[in-house]
Structure formats: C-alpha cells, structure tokens
Amino acid sequence: MTSAGLEPDSIAYPIRKTLRKKKNTFYRMAAVQKIDSVNQSIKTDIGNLKYDKLVIATGAGNNFFGNQSIAENAIPMMSLTEALDLRSKILQNFELALNTTNPVEREKLMNFVIVGAGPTGVELAGALAELKNKILPKDFPDLDLRLMKIHLIEASDTVLSAMKEKSSKKAHEYLKKLGVHIWTNTFVED
C-alpha cells in the first residue's frame, strides 16, 4: 500500500509518543541560538538546556530552484497538512471531471505533473498510478480513466538519481509498468 491509501496517523507518528517510554529522554522544539559542545549545553529561545546526547532534526524546506512562478503555483508536500490538502485537491479534481461536459476541461482535471523524481516524487507518481489502477475504477466507474495522465519530470538523467543504479532502474521500470510518463533530462522553466 502506498501513501494514497494511508491515513494521516500512519504517515506522521508523534515523536512524543515514541520517546515517552525512554528513560531520561526529553523532546523540546525550540530555536537554537548557540551550541556549546564542550559543556554539552544549548542556548535556545526557551532557555538553556543541558544534554548527554544531542539529536538535531532541522527538517527540510521546498526548493523551487529560484523559480518564483513555480513557488507561487506549485502545490508543495512538505508537511502533513500539505499532503492532506494535496490528496483533497486530487479527489476534488475527479469529482469535477465527472461532472463537466467539456472534454478538454475533463482531461485537464485528470492530468498530473510531478516535478522531481527523488524519493517523494517517485512515491507520489506510484501512488497516483495505483490510485488510477485500483481505487478510482471502483469509486468513479463512469469516468474514463484512460484520460488520466501522470507525468514525472526530472532534470537529471534518471529517477532516484541519488540512489544506487539498480534501485533507480527498478523504480523506472515499475513506474513505466504502472503507466507513468517519465521525462528525464527535462527542466521545468515556468
């Protein structure tokens, strides 16, 4: 099962719940101002903290590679809220596609473009393809799902380029088998 069929609590598990049974382990979310590794202390916006072991989880952000148009128009998926919004938008598109009589508009609503064939992009493309092949035919039996297109665009020459070649090739083959259109060596300009 992929992320398309998972509930939010299966995707984002609360770290406090994970750590609560660990002795002498504390979770603090704070803005770090200074780390003193010699004295094993941290100056933060909530005060000074001492530590035996320090784990710094800074998170990540979206990289639109300086393209303002993409930053303004893309639907990011960096948080659970954004992922749920995206899932909702996808399902709304199918409801709209089912109800429109305009074939051009219907095709537009069923056309998905994912930029970036790293782990998240590959997972999302696979999830959409499985949704198309397994879930949507049951939920939307009177919608022509042959119109649905999934495009995965990648600037480098392979999907999962940071991984081993074998993994990259297997992912590419699997996505092709699912019906995903893969565009490598392709840069999104606008």
Question: Keywords, please?
Answer:
single chain, 190 residues, alpha/beta, FAD/NAD(P)-binding domain, 3-stranded antiparallel sheet, 3-stranded parallel sheet, 7 helices, elongated
Can you put this structure into words, describing what you see?
This protein has helices spanning 8-11, 15-19, 68-73, 80-99, 103-109, 119-139, 165-178, and strands at 32-36, 41-44, 47-50, 111-115, 149-153, 181-183. By secondary structure, the protein is an alpha/beta fold. The protein folds into 2 domains: 8-50, no CATH class; 62-183, FAD/NAD(P)-binding domain (3-Layer(bba) Sandwich), CATH 3.50.50. Strands 1-2-3 form a 3-stranded antiparallel beta sheet, with no helix packed on it. The chain is elongated, with a radius of gyration of 21 Å.
Return the string of H and E elements. Answer: HHEEEHHHEHEHE
CATH topology of the largest domain: FAD/NAD(P)-binding domain
Structural domain tally: 2
Main pleated-sheet profile: 3 strands, antiparallel
Multimerization state? single chain
What is the element layout, followed by pairings?
Elements: H1 8-11, H2 15-19, E1 32-36, E2 41-44, E3 47-50, H3 68-73, H4 80-99, H5 103-109, E4 111-115, H6 119-139, E5 149-153, H7 165-178, E6 181-183
Parallel strand pairs: 4-5, 5-6
Antiparallel strand pairs: 1-2, 2-3
Helix pairs in contact: 4-5, 6-7
At a glance:
The chain is an alpha/beta fold and 190 residues long.
